[in-house]
Design a protein that fits this description.
The protein is mainly α and 118 residues long. The protein contains 6 helices and no strands. It is 83% helix and 0% strand. The longest helix is centred in the C-terminal third of the chain and has 28 residues. It is globular, with a radius of gyration of 16 Å.
Length: 118
């Protein structure tokens, strides 16, 4: 049942984002920022954690999950380090994901040899 919940919740998030792309004049970058901020906001008010427990990877993999990870890291760092934790927490909590994205995209650029658009 965990796989089914992850599948339909993740699909629902993707479908809602696709509706935003198709029906509004929002640029994809702004929609991505909106999703990250939404995840951080839902994490701050305590709604994202139960949602993520129910949906599993369907909630943790999309950008809303990234926003929640940033929020949890900032909250933990502020509790430990005070005000400076606002600047440190997001980096320490999301370092693995960001590093993986950079490394894998660099490897993909070697394999597929991207070309500039003209």
């Amino acid at each position: 049942m965990d796989y089914i919940n992850a599948f339909w919740i993740g699909g629902l998030i993707c479908a809602l984002v696709q509706i935003l792309v198709d029906r509004t004049k929002l640029m994809p970058g702004r929609i991505m920022v909106l999703l990250v901020c939404l995840g951080a906001l839902l994490g701050a008010v305590g709604l994202y954690e139960p949602f993520q427990k129910f949906a599993g990877a369907g909630a943790s993999v999309p950008l809303t999950g990234f926003g929640n990870v940033l929020w949890k890291g900032v909250k933990k760092a502020v509790d430990e380090n005070g005000f400076i934790g606002i600047f440190l927490g997001g980096f320490t909590s999301s370092a693995v994901g960001i590093s993986a994205a950079l490394i894998y995209s660099y490897l993909a650029s070697w394999i597929f040899q991207p070309k500039m658009k003209q």
